[in-house]
Fold:
Amino acid sequence: MEELRNVGTLAGERGQMCINMEWGAFGDNGCLDAIFTPFDRQVDEASLNPGKQRFEKLISGMYLGEIVRRILLELTAKGLLFRGRPSPKLQTRDIFQTKFLSSIESDGLALRQVCAILEELGLHVTCEDSVLVREVCQEVARRAAQLCGAGVAAVVEKIRENRGLEQLAVTVGVDGTLYKLHPHFAQQVQKTVQLLAPRCSVTFLQSEDGSGKGAALIAAVACRVA
Structure:
């Protein structure tokens, strides 16, 4: 909720506005170009909506597996992975699912088990391959978590400044399998927020069916007001 006087697109000084950020579209104006890698551009261009929802394509579980797959193809082409021989499966778009990132990064998962996951994709894998693939998964997921945390930090800092507070305590509801199931994603998001917004105390609360319940709540409020 934001004070109407802080909403630049609407006239008026009194009252509040419920803000739907739609932050997945952040970067559609080119402001994120500097951090887009060639792999991000490939994923964007091959998507159903090229040039749109660009921030989402950096942080969403829908896209992380495909980013990893394209990095693995590049490393294979350079002879750094899989003896330079990609499998037909690995060359299939979206075959490397984001759940593989969560599995490969699971604490205590032996390299032998990482090899088994990769062999499902028809790859002949060495221990060195498994180590490198795990590092790629770690970096892609870490970047996504840090960018997500940076977005949250920017929002809570904006709220704190607008309210003229020295300190802000706020709860952020979170939905999504990446946050819930990845072994390190949630911790990395929270750590980034603490680093970038030290004057905000942010509590993350997992929600179930957040979109559906939110829509129902808004409809109920509208009916009561009416």
Notes: The chain has a mean pLDDT of 90. The radius of gyration is 21 Å. Residues 127-163 form the longest helix (37 residues).
